[in-house]
Design goal:
The complex is a heterodimer.
Chain A: H1 3-20, H2 24-35, H3 40-45, H4 56-93, H5 111-125, E1 129-130, E2 136-138, H6 139-142, H7 154-157, E3 167-169, H8 175-183, E4 191-200, E5 212-222, H9 227-242, E6 248-255, E7 258-267, E8 284-293, H10 295-300, E9 309-315, H11 317-325, H12 332-335, H13 338-342
Parallel strand pairs in A: 1-4
Antiparallel strand pairs in A: 2-3, 4-5, 5-9, 6-7, 7-8, 8-9
Helix pairs in contact in A: 1-2, 1-4, 2-4, 5-11
Chain B: E1 2-4, H1 5-8, H2 18-28, E2 31-36, E3 42-54, E4 62-67, E5 74-78, E6 88-98, E7 102-103, E8 107-109, E9 112-114, E10 116-119, H3 153-156, E11 161-166, H4 177-187, E12 204-205, E13 211-214, E14 222-229, H5 238-246, H6 254-266, E15 270-274, E16 282-287, E17 293-296, E18 299-302, E19 308-312, E20 315-319, E21 323-324, E22 337-343, H7 346-355, H8 361-368, H9 375-389, E23 394-396, E24 399-402, E25 409-414, H10 415-422, H11 428-437, E26 441-445, E27 448-453, H12 463-474, E28 492-493, H13 495-509, E29 513-514, E30 520-521, H14 523-528, E31 549-550, H15 555-566, E32 573-583, E33 592-602, E34 604-606, E35 615-616, H16 619-631, E36 639-643, E37 650-660, E38 663-671, H17 673-678, E39 684-690, H18 691-697, E40 713-722, H19 727-737, E41 742-751, E42 760-769, H20 778-796, E43 799-800
Parallel strand pairs in B: 12-23, 13-16, 29-32
Antiparallel strand pairs in B: 1-11, 2-11, 3-4, 3-6, 4-5, 6-7, 6-10, 8-9, 14-22, 14-23, 14-24, 15-22, 16-19, 17-18, 19-20, 20-21, 25-27, 26-27, 30-31, 32-33, 33-39, 34-35, 36-37, 37-38, 38-39, 40-42, 40-43, 41-42
Helix pairs in contact in B: 5-6, 6-9, 7-8, 10-12, 19-20
The chains are: A alpha+beta, B alpha+beta.
GO molecular function, one term (chain B): ATP binding
Subcellular location (chain B): Cytoplasm
EC number (chain B): 6.1.1.20
Chain lengths: 348, 801
């Protein structure tokens, strides 16, 4: 057989063997066997000396081509086998994605604190400072300074836990008003504050009463504060909390420390004002009390009511949360059943 | 109080439905709701009983023939004991609808045909306690002949429409029909008209059997009486009775009814006495003596020297402004009547009524105030009504115990100031017009307003009151929505709250749920965790033993939460609370309020699942959370954990105090097994940190350092050491001797037991050395490492393994 034919045979056989290989090892062996220094091609080329000089370049080219072709066939087959291996591995690694996750739990902020912080953030955006005040308060700040003297009937309305004649568990976060007005330097601009916190009343605990609950008091003292400012502020608050489509309305009311005093209703977020069980078929839900600070309260804090006016409002986070999330029993907030708490993950 | 629309029509025109009115009144003045009585009632007519015969098959039933205005009488079987021939009665015809879904149908009663029902007042909607007593156990019988077949609704007020007003304490001026008419009139721009009561001149005599002395003139600014002689006490007319029972007042007799009627009409409570039952002729209004008794129908009340009473000699006639005794009650035999109209101090009445649990229509009005401008007019009105509805021979002039002339209030203000406070720009004329609707007279002088307030609006005192009146009548719905337009301010939390928010976020990130507990605890609970040995702070008048003391630790609340949840199979718990505790120094009344951040972890921190194995919480898990928290406090402090066994309810071998620069700032550990058993909680670890103290340490300034560029070299160290030596001691010693390039020491193994000497443990440490400025050499490290080993061997007698 001529060298030429030998090489061609080697090529045909080599390519054929590569194609038939089933394992990578076979291909490696094939490469070493056929293309290595001791392989048949190298061996065949030793017969080059017998080839006439003028044919040698042609044979040389052929030998290179044979090597390249076999190499290519081996590589092609290797790629194919590798892909098969990867496919097999992927197949083996396939998992059931519907199996439950390895738990990565974040805690849930108490829904009352979520509610409070949502309201705080709203007012911080309007330039209000947050000041929380004392839970044990003097009668003086909790009542007297709010225009509620000793025999005032309003004291009956908020039955009080006293610690001594002069000390009590504050019944309202409004108790902070006097302290804030005293401390404020009006030459530096208006006083704008909200005061969130815990308050206490001598009440039996039931579905709608709790001897401890939260309030947020708001107070703005400046020249020219008006009822329209109060309405605009509370309108924006109610839209923030209960939805952009909400409206509010004022109804006259009475608090010893504001004059005028109003109750604030928000249009029912359940029925949109048509009337439903939640709004007792009125289309409106009472959410807070407010008013212009009584001149006596300003005067007692050393503020001239002829120069300054003030607006104040007080709201109950429990009530807000109960309305917003349909919570029917105020005691749920304080039992801290984690199944109750965790349902409010991420609501605010 | 319920404002009857029919009654209201006597004073102002009414052109709106009761629903519309209630809504409008709510928005401009007083919270109100519509009341429509007897909406469901149908087929109720007057019947005239023409014959009554006993039922042949019944002992108590009677067969009645009743004229109901039709061509023939109808037969009705009736069981009422008081049914009789000739009576005019209420008949529910076939098909009639009664309250409570009751429907009347034609039928047979024990074989006798019955074509309807003869009704009692309670059966047609008048509550038993407010209907005349004589009809309590039977059918209602009209006093006067009526037309058979006429509907009974108007006669009995069964379908009256009313506006139920729920007043705030300052608006007691509307607790009378006349005051309510002013208020509702102002809402609709209608001024009410009233007729002044006049007495028949020939009956009025200057006479008085009694003398009256008001000892407490300050508390009783007005005390007026009239005597009515030779009175025939009877029933009051039906129009008065139906108005009373619709006001939830039981008609009694013509005298008492007139007094009650005037209270509703004027808002002025009136009392009546049987003049002949007085033990003495000299009346005194004074404080009772301790031990005096007030005789009531259902028993006696022991009076105190703080109770204002009306006495005739020694006879206690009544508690002033609250309730009369039964000593001189007017009854059907009364011949001579004494009528009282007084004004009593609100606070005094309130306390007396509360003390004796006798709050009622009269005390409610005096507590909130009455119009002292109409006291004599109301007294005259009672006399007039009694004269009109009964026979009276003589009426005395007013006998005065005390009288204070009522003066109108003058309020000065300005249109511009009122406008500014409303945020409006109303013309002065418009403001004046609104005030005029309320019956306030206004003198205008440029911008200045001088407003004269009638005595019926005693709540009006200052210009701010005018602002409210103008604004509400103008309509809050017409106010624009604006925001305060003053100087810009910077809003935000105070720095302590900022820190607390950050720390709470860390705990939330650690998977801990936030809880909120009560601040008031039981005695046992404050004793359980009195870590700082501070004085307890107790409420003067607690409601329950569960909530008697101010909390001195958040742990009892957290334990309650763990117990509550674990009782409901929520076994794995990670909770925290950020709140105040109260600590009191002996001798001081006021406790300090200290903010704490505390947590409790119980059950598994990794649950058993298809790919994980349950891992119960242990000390080190909780310590990890606390250390991360402390790292985020940005505190300029060195924190250490020091074992303690001094807390009674903590595990003595698994509890540590947490120190910052040597000062205790909190604790961490496991609850004592006995305490856990007593509180029904599984193994629970708690921690508590004083946020106020952490805040004071919150001062570290961080100077950035570039991340190290040179490689580190590490050495492992295994030692055998006595069991009682703490890791903290070893680590401190390693650092003390490891040289300046020792960067980190980590313990990777703790072992005791098999193959280890008794009372010894084997510890493995990984030491990491690094020079931030150069590559370390093995020699440098080996030198430092030797020093570490030598020191440990010398100080702790360790065996290097």
């Amino acid at each position: 057989m001529s060298l030429n034919d030998t090489l061609k045979n080697l090529r045909a056989n080599g390519i054929d063997e590569a194609k038939r290989a089933e394992r990578l090892q076979e291909l490696n062996d094939l490469r070493v066997n056929l293309l290595g220094k001791k392989g048949p091609i190298t061996k065949a080329l030793r017969g080059m000396k017998d080839v006439p000089a003028e044919e040698r370049p042609e044979i040389g080219t052929l030998a290179n081509n044979v090597k390249n072709d076999i190499q290519a066939a081996i590589e092609e087959k290797m790629t194919e086998l590798n892909q098969k291996l990867v496919a097999k591995k992927l197949e083996e690694e396939t998992i059931d994605v519907t199996l439950p996750a390895t738990k990565q739990t974040q805690g849930t902020k108490h829904i009352l604190n979520q509610t409070i912080e949502d309201i705080e953030q709203f007012f911080i955006g309007l330039g209000y400072e947050v000041a929380s005040g004392y839970e044990v308060e003097e009668d003086h700040y909790n009542f007297e300074r709010l225009n509620i003297p000793k025999d005032h009937p309003a004291r009956d309305m908020q039955d009080t836990f006293y610690l001594s004649d002069e000390l009590l568990m504050r019944t309202q976060t409004s108790a902070q008003e006097g302290r804030d007005m005293e401390a404020h330097d009006f030459s530096k601009g208006p006083l704008k504050m909200i005061s969130p916190g815990v308050v206490y009343r001598r009440d039996d605990d039931d579905a709608t009463h709790s001897h401890q609950f939260h309030q947020i008091e708001g107070l703005v003292v400046d020249k020219n504060i008006s009822m329209a400012d109060l309405k605009g502020t509370l309108d924006a608050l109610c839209r923030h909390v209960f939805g952009a489509d909400r409206e509010i309305r004022f109804r006259p009311s009475y608090f010893p420390f504001t004059e005028p005093s109003v109750e604030v209703d928000v249009s029912c977020f359940n029925c949109g004002g048509e009337g439903c069980r939640i709004c007792k078929y009125t289309g409106w839900i009472e959410v807070l009390g407010a008013g212009l600070t009584h001149p006596n309260v300003l005067t007692m804090s050393g503020i001239d009511p002829n120069e300054y006016s003030a607006m104040a409002f007080g709201l109950g986070p429990e009530r807000f949360a109960m309305l917003k999330y349909g919570i029917n029993d105020i005691r749920d907030f304080y039992l801290n059943d984690v199944r109750f708490l965790e349902q409010f993950k991420g609501v605010n | 109080m319920k404002i009857s629309v029919n009654w209201l029509k006597e004073y102002i025109p009414v052109n709106h439905t009761v629903e519309e009115m209630a809504n409008k009144i709510s928005l401009t003045g007083i919270e109100s709701g519509p009341v429509k009585l007897g909406e469901e009632l149908t087929n109720l007519v007057v019947g005239h009983i023409t014959s009554v015969v006993p039922h042949p098959d019944s002992d108590h039933l009677k067969v009645c023939q009743v004229d109901v205005g039709e061509s023939e009488d109808i037969q009705i079987v009736c069981g009422a004991p008081n049914v009789a021939v000739g009576q005019y009665v209420i008949v529910a015809l076939h098909g009639a609808q009664l309250p409570g879904g009751v429907k009347i149908k034609r039928g047979k009663l024990r074989g006798q045909e019955s074509n309807g029902m003869i009704c009692g007042l309670d059966e047609v909607g008048v509550p038993t306690q407010y209907m005349p007593k004589e009809f309590e156990n039977g059918i209602y019988v009209f006093d006067e002949p009526q037309t058979p077949g006429d509907a009974v609704y108007d006669l009995l007020g069964l379908k009256d429409q009313m506006i139920d007003i729920d007043i705030t304490p300052n608006r007691a001026d509307t607790l009378g029909m006349r005051g309510a008419a002013w208020e509702i009139g102002a809402t609709y721009n209608e001024k009410p008209t009233f007729t002044k009561p006049e007495l028949a001149a020939d009956k009025v005599k200057d006479m008085s059997d009694v003398t009256v002395d008001v000892a407490e003139k300050k508390l009783v600014p007005d005390y007026l009486l009239r005597e009515l002689k030779d009175v025939t006490v009877g029933k009051s007319p039906l129009w008065m009775q139906r108005r009373l029972w619709n006001q939830n007042i039981r008609p009694v007799n013509s005298i008492i009814d007139a007094a009650n009627y005037v209270m509703i009409e004027y808002g002025q409570p009136i009392q009546t006495f049987d003049l002949d039952k007085l033990a003495a002729q000299n009346l005194t209004v004074k404080f009772a003596n301790d031990g005096d008794k007030l005789k009531l129908a259902d028993g006696e009340k022991d009076l105190t020297h703080n109770d204002l009473v009306i006495v005739a000699g020694d006879q206690i006639l009544g508690l002033a402004g609250v309730q009369n005794s039964i000593e001189a009650t007017v009854d059907e035999n009364t011949k001579n009547v004494l009528v009282e109209a007084g004004v009593f101090d609100g606070a005094s009445v309130r306390k007396t009524a509360q003390r004796h649990d006798l709050r009622g229509d009269a005390s409610n009005r005096f507590e909130k105030g009455v119009d002292n401008g109409i006291v004599d007019e109301a007294l005259t009105r009672v006399a007039q009504l009694i004269d009109q509805t009964t026979t009276v021979k003589e009426i005395s002039n007013v006998i005065t115990g005390n009288f204070t002339k009522a003066e109108p209030t003058i309020i000065k203000g300005s249109a511009s100031h009122i406008n500014r406070l409303m945020g409006l720009d109303l013309a002065t004329d418009e403001i004046v017009a609104i005030l005029d609707r309320l019956g306030f007279n206004v003198d205008v002088n440029g911008d200045a307003l001088t407003v004269t307030i009638p005595t019926r609006r005693w709540d009006m005192e200052i210009e701010a009151d005018l602002v409210e009146e103008v604004n509400r009548i103008y309509g809050y719905e017409n106010l624009p929505n604006t925001l305060p337009a003053g100087m810009e301010t910077r809003g935000g939390y105070d720095p302590k709250r900022e820190l607390a928010n950050k720390l709470r976020d860390i705990l939330l990130g650690e998977g801990m749920d936030e809880v909120i507990n009560f601040s008031l605890l039981s005695k046992q609970e404050v004793e359980d965790f009195n870590i700082d040995n501070s004085e307890f702070t107790k409420l003067l008048h607690p409601m329950t033993e569960d909530h008697e003391y101010l909390r001195n630790s958040l742990i009892p609340g957290l334990v309650r939460n763990v117990a509550y949840n674990q009782a409901r199979k929520n076994d794995d718990l990670k909770i925290f609370e950020h709140a105040r505790v109260f600590q009191r120094v002996t001798g001081q009344d006021r406790p300090s309020e200290i903010t704490y951040l505390s947590g409790a972890i119980s059950g598994n921190v990794v649950t058993d699942s298809w790919n994980t194995t349950a891992q119960p919480v242990d000390f080190y898990y909780v310590k990890g959370i606390v250390e991360e928290l402390l790292a985020f406090t940005n505190a300029d402090a060195e924190f250490t954990f020091v074992a303690t066994s001094e807390y009674e309810n903590m595990h003595p071998g698994q509890t540590a105090k947490i120190l910052a620069n040597g000062q205790v700032i909190g604790l961490i550990g496991k609850l004592h097994p006995n305490y856990q058993t007593a509180h029904n909680v599984k193994d629970t670890f708690v921690f508590e940190l004083n946020v106020d103290m952490l805040f004071d340490l919150n001062a570290k300034s961080v100077k950035a350092q570039t991340a190290p560029k040179y490689p580190s070299i590490s050495r492992d160290l295994a030692i055998l050491v006595a069991k009682n030596i703490e890791n903290g001691q070893i680590v401190a010693d390693i650092f003390a001797n490891g040289g300046k390039y020792l960067k980190d020491v980590n313990i990777f193994d703790v072992y005791e037991g098999k193959n280890i000497k008794p009372n010894h443990k084997s510890l493995g440490y990984h030491l990491e050395f690094q020079n931030p400025n150069d590559t370390l050499t093995d020699d440098e490290v080996e030198k430092a490492f030797s020093l570490v080993k030598d020191s440990l061997a010398q100080k702790f007698n360790v065996e290097i393994r």
